[in-house]
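RNase H type-1 domain-containing protein
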Amino acid sequence: MAKKSRFDAELWGLLDELLLLQKQGYDKVIIQSDNLGNVIFINDNSLVGPKSTLIRRIQQILASKRQWSLRYIPRETNQIVDALSKMALSSEVLHMFEEPLIEFKEILKEAFSSDNSIMNISM
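Predicted structure tokens:
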């Protein structure tokens, strides 16, 4: 049950993001997710059988915008985004940096030293 709830929560979050971006009128959007299953499931139009209304709605939004895509990014290479998200949630102040924080430099150093590649899966 917890797995389905997490799956649904991530899909609802994605739909909210898409609707917000659509409302703000963006032409080009690349959404990155570290959930490979969600990315494959949403981008695979050949899947037959029942799909949730939520997934169909996400697919409709992505299909209606030519330059919008959903990409998979491995969790290991997504560490900086996670750290920035946590920082943003823990403060009400906008942070601007002239240089990357030491923690981010270490993450970047590790990411570039290993052979992590980003798999693009676009609609």
